[in-house]
Design a protein that fits this description.
The protein is an all-alpha fold. The protein has twelve helices and no strands. The chain is globular.
């Protein structure tokens, strides 16, 4: 077994972004006096496993559908390179699905302790849907990533589920103001996907992958991208203002990087030139969550 190929397939650079919502939801709870180290640890592990699962499944699904070809711009995928076979990747996808559930189930049991059983089962269904969503983005005849639904699903799972879902496991309640942070992280996560789709839209169109960028066109996608970035800032500011957590304003510092990033996007005429921008948005989102964490414990 070539460990390096599996590490490459796990796409480690995508992991910090996936943790951002968990960090934000957890440390809002921490600041409000709710905390459980077991919940935090299990939530982080579950999210990491789900992200790796999604990366494996994307590698597998795109290889079957022909999207990973010589026209693709990003890093070469593991199956595409021949270093991991489709059969091996299928086994890897199954293993990551099981690992995700093995950490999700104890997380739910601990987090829903002393809550109605209906809440426990709601979270169990949510965990199963998370695994299903991670796999069916590109796998299957009705893969939603090929039908323009990727943006919606990213918002739901990276924004709403990550931030609001984990917060409720700590606090056993719902905080409406937290929707601002959920929108902020969710919209930034869509922005990363949108950049990916802008970069690859020419090849996606050829293989009949109908992303939102393919539907609206490259130039209009720039405007959409701007709305995502600005909308995320407004969401985070709304939360901070409603709760009067003024020290948390340090969390918006990465928007100076994102402002420069938007200028780059608008000036870009060649889609392939957007590849380095993915890292900027993903790491800026993670930095927002870390600065927010710092502001809540100071």
């Amino acid at each position: 077994m070539d460990i390096k190929s599996w590490i490459h397939a796990a796409r480690l650079r995508t992991l910090p972004l996936s943790l951002s919502g968990i960090i934000v939801g957890s440390f809002v709870a921490h600041k409000q006096g709710f905390w459980d180290t077991s919940i935090f640890t299990l939530a982080m592990l579950t999210t990491l496993f789900l992200q790796v699962l999604s990366n494996f499944a994307n590698d597998l699904g795109d290889s079957y559908k022909g999207a990973d070809n010589e026209g693709r711009v990003g890093p070469m995928r593991a199956v595409q390179s021949g270093k991991i076979s489709q059969k091996q990747m299928t086994v890897g996808t199954v293993i990551m699905s099981l690992l995700s559930l093995l950490t999700a189930i104890p997380l739910i049991i601990i987090g829903t302790n002393e809550m109605p059983s209906s809440v426990l089962w709601a979270y169990v269904i949510l965990a199963l849907l998370s695994v299903l969503a991670a796999v069916t983005y590109t796998v299957g005849k009705k893969a939603y990533g090929y039908n323009g639904m990727g943006d919606v699903m990213v918002f739901i799972f990276f924004g709403l589920v990550s931030v609001l879902g984990v917060y409720s496991l700590y606090s056993k309640q719902f905080d409406w103001s937290l929707l601002g942070m959920a929108f902020g992280i969710g919209l930034l996560s869509i922005a990363v996907l949108n950049l990916n789709n802008m970069r690859d839209h020419e090849n996606d169109k050829l293989v009949n992958k109908r992303t939102i960028v393919v539907s609206m066109g490259f130039e209009k996608a720039k405007g959409y991208h701007t709305l995502l970035i600005v909308g995320s800032l407004l969401g985070i500011l709304t939360f901070i203002i409603l709760n009067e957590w003024w020290l948390s304003l340090i969390a918006i510092l990465p928007y100076f990087i994102l402002a420069k990033h938007l200028l780059k996007v608008w000036k870009t005429a060649v889609p392939q030139a957007l590849d380095p921008e993915l890292k900027k948005v993903a790491l800026s989102t993670f930095m927002i969550s870390i600065l927010f964490l710092i502001s809540t414990v100071l």
